[in-house]
Amino acid sequence: MSTTTVPVSDNSTSQEDNRLAYAHGTVMAITWMVFASTGILFARYGRLLRIGSKRKVLGEFVWFQAHRLTLSVAAFSTLLGFFLVLAQATGSWVSLDDDGPYVVAHSILGIMIVGFALIQIWMALFRCHPISRFRFIFNWLHRSVGLLAFVLSIPTIFLIISTLTNYQSGLYIVMSIWTGWTVFIFGLFEILTYLNQRNSTSSSEHTYRTDREYELRPSSSISNNNTDSDQEDRFNQIKLILLGIYVVIAIALVIPFIILIWQQN
């Protein structure tokens, strides 16, 4: 009787001990597979987005509200994920001998991403005014740090998948599909933006690439004639549809990913 009871108790304890690690994986997967990627898409390709005829929501541009919301959630949930895994490890750092090179590499990239998230929060809180002559420094630092953190998150996730014992192939498949889908949607937006610029006499869509803040541009510079306005309307609809599809598919992929995380021993 006792020989059957002890293993069950040990297994239950082991599963409970790993819950914080699973929660860490859950938070980080949602953060980088949904919120971070969506926020970057809005910032890079959504500068001219509007809802109906409105370009602003609660006094700010639609793209900025979406960008700020999604990436604020991403930054703070990254910190939450870090504290969860720190609690799981009771404050100790991983070691090469006990945990292996993949876990060590994962932890190094992970702490770099946490550092980038903190830098982004700090820069956002203390950014200079849009008309400041130093604004271009913030713009490039903000973009570079954010993009670097996002790019690093992909190998970081793949590294930890390689250390898991259950459903490893399934996790690889889901993550690979998401990576391919994300690369595809970014490439598609780049192509559509290029085509829109080439066909537009006002070349309005490329304004987001300049260092001067989009908010300061007069509305007359957005569209110079009815032809450009009609083209912009079509392009706006296409972007809204693509952004919606991207978010839906990202969520659809992150759900099985999380389920497989919680199926680990």
UniProtKB/TrEMBL annotation:
Alphabetical UniProt keywords: Electron transport, Membrane, Transmembrane, Transmembrane helix, Transport
Organism: Adineta ricciae (Rotifer)
Protein name (record): Cytochrome b561 domain-containing protein
Gene3D superfamilies, per the entry: 1.20.120.1770
Protein localization: Membrane
Domain of life, per lineage: Eukaryota
TM region(s), chain numbering: 20-45, 66-90, 102-125, 145-165, 171-195, 240-262
Lineage start: Eukaryota, Metazoa, Spiralia, Gnathifera, Rotifera
Keyword Ion transport: no
GO cellular component labels: membrane
